[in-house]
Amino acid sequence: MKKFIAGVAGATIAVLALSACSAGGTAATSAAAGASSAAGGSIKVSLIAKGTSDYWTLVKNGAEAAGKDLGVEVTYNATDTENEGDKQLNLLTAAINDKPQGVAIAPQDGAQDGAPTVLDQAKAANIPVAVFDTPLKSWDGAIATIASDNEGIGAQAAENLSKLIGGKGKVAMVIQGVTGTAALRRDGFANWMKANAPDIQVVDIQNGEADPAKSRDKAQAILQANPDLAGFAGTSDYSTIAIADEVAAKGGTVKVVGVDASPDVLTLLSEGKIDGIVTQNPYQIGYKTVSTLVDQVKGKAPAEKTIVSEAAWVTKDNMNNPEIKQITG
Amino acid sequence: MSTNTTAVSASTMKWAIPERYKVFLQQGMVLLVVVLLAVFFTIMKPNFASWSNISSLLLASVVTGVQALGLSFVIATGGIDLTPGLGMAATSTFTAILIADAGLRLPIWVGILGGLLAGALIGLINGSLVAYVRMQPMIATLAMMMVCAGTALVIANGKTISLRSIQGWESIAMGQVIPGVPNGVTILILLAIIAGVVMNKTAIGRYSLAIGSNKEATRISGVNTRRWEVLAYVICGVFTGISGILMSSRLAAAQPTLGQGYEMYAIAAAVIGGTSLRGGRASIFGAVIGAVTIQTIFNGLTVMGVQDQWQKVVLGVVVLIAVFVDIMRRGGKEE
């Protein structure tokens, strides 16, 4: 019997000790914020994200930096995967129950429909809600949505490619899909060219289906069909890498631009095989989400319901600048 | 082969506590752990003890609790069922496609019935494979788990099915018949009472435990063990169907990819609650408390600001402790 009780007691202590240790990881933020928040009127905002990839680490970094700069406490939590809609709602509910001055969510697919009921509770408790990264479809109570402008990203790629090739010649694209983000970037690119570059001709747009091998096949076929191609654009990391590899293999003078700064893309950029990339700014998404909520708490409502996180143009020359490093990780 | 716990422990236990008191003791211990955890979290974060937080914690326990109730019957027979997680994905998408605007637009009750029948069908296949084809439960239900995962994606065409426009669907789990208590929690308690009666007072419960204690002896004494074993899996399947209905109500949607790993939470809940994976012993009360323990850990650590990844580490340690305590309970020897 003694053994039994000792076992239970030891077990419980072990659990508590472990949780206390793991809380240490975030304690730093809270402590730092706690010290400064005394001056700032003890504001606390809570962000619920939907993933733990590199991208989301940057969102988190941005949010925590904003917390430090503005002297507020930021709690950030996320589901491990995008297949845990109920878990995300649990995190959201727990965050709201903690009575922060503001809450923000990046809704995953499975939480899109369940979130409104939970967010209504936040509204009833006068807690302002912001949405970040991914728009929330069926709720319009958010003070603002902070996200990338994918059409703008396409346009930015087009504008820079046009500059690189002197405003004339044939260009083509390999895209990673025909819906959602890929379609928006494609349209942004094509529309900018149509409106602003009369001497540039978009000769072909092919779908690489977010598959590295298929993307290369498409890029190779386009290069075969258009030996006089001046510029080539990808809309995701895979399509951009495929284009860069094919262009390098052919050894031409085709200018290559793309979207998204994955480590492989950055390597190709430093080797000069990619001329420039437009990259989303997850760091800024995190930062602006916190600053928007804090402004709201301090009585300054956001001017627009949609706040665009501007994308950055990254080249070999600026890729090592600190402000770019912050974005690309 | 597992042996009859009652016989062994009565003769070899150093401290002679009658088996039925030890069951209470075990359950009391589990309850004590939850209370200690709650006290700890309340000290760390007083907000933890607010009713709004406790009720959302209980709501979060519902799906795992329901699945653990069903699993208790299978585990009692000495078997295991890996389908509750992705079976939930399959049954919830099946329910959704019956009633959704994007589906057949049938009345709500058809959806509920469909979900229960889909769950029962999964259980029937599992049980038949185990009892009649004599597959190992782990392998048979692992294969069925994959079938369910794929079926869910096929039914839903890979997309989340919205049920937001279905009047009354969200209130199945989220409404409050008892003020302040989400219906999902009320449903879990009612199901636990039903499961408790079935486990302890009816033939299926007694035979499940008997099969788990000593299958051969049970068969020789004239019980059609195969039929009762199938029934245990069917019960588990029906509870999986119920969990699918509650999950899709909670989300106001059916997400075909949601469910992976949920069977592990259900198994963990049963184990924390004192159900032995060797069969022959099951605790309905423990299964519910086990599910609440898991969510207490998740919720408390979330409130404390601990990240999701760490929460899973802590849960794993708690499961290990539960098993360790169970071994200690039996005087440090393997059954």
Give the domain tally of chain B.
Answer: 1
Count of all domains of chain A: 2
Shape of chain B: globular
Strand order of the largest sheet of chain B: 1-2
Within the largest sheet of chain A, what's the order of strands?
A: 2-1-3-4-5-11
Residue runs with pLDDT of under 50 for 5 or more positions of chain A: 19-40
* End-to-end Cα distance of chain A: 55 Å
SS-derived structural category of chain B: mainly alpha
Mean pLDDT metric of chain A: 86
Number of H- or I-type helical stretches of chain B: 14
Q: Compute the separation of the termini of chain B in Å.
A: 10 Å
Tell me what the CATH architecture of the largest domain in chain A is: 3-Layer(aba) Sandwich
CATH class of the largest domain in chain A: Alpha Beta
Succession of helices and strands of chain A = HEHEHEHEEHEHEHEHEHEHEEH
Summarize the amount of helix of chain A as a percent range: 40-55%
Features:
heterodimer, A: 329 residues, alpha/beta, Rossmann fold, 2 domains, six-stranded parallel sheet, six-stranded mixed sheet, 11 helices, 51% helix, B: 335 residues, mainly alpha, ABC transporter involved in vitamin B12 uptake, BtuC, two-stranded antiparallel ribbon, 14 helices
Summarize the structure.
The complex is a heterodimer of chains A (329) and B (335). Chain A has 329 residues and is of the alpha/beta class.
Describe the structure.
The complex is a heterodimer of chains A (329) and B (335). Chain A has 11 helices and 12 strands. Chain A has 2 domains: 28-142 and 282-312, Response regulator (Rossmann fold, 3-Layer(aba) Sandwich); 150-279, Response regulator (Rossmann fold). With 329 residues, chain A is α/β, with parallel strands linked by helices. Helices cover 51% and strands 19% of the residues of chain A. In chain A, the strands form 2 sheets. Chain A has a 6-stranded parallel sheet with strand order 2-1-3-4-5-11, with helices on both faces. Chain A has a 6-stranded mixed sheet with strand order 7-6-8-9-10-12, sandwiched between helices. Chain B has a two-stranded antiparallel ribbon. The relative contact order of chain B is 0.20. The longest helix of chain B is centred in the C-terminal third of the chain and has 27 residues, at 225-251. Chain B is globular. Chain B is 72% helix and 1% strand. The model of chain B is unreliable at 1-13 (pLDDT under 50). Chain B is mostly helical. Chains A and B meet through helix 1, strand 2 and helix 3 of A and helix 2, helix 3, helix 11, helix 13 and helix 14 of B.
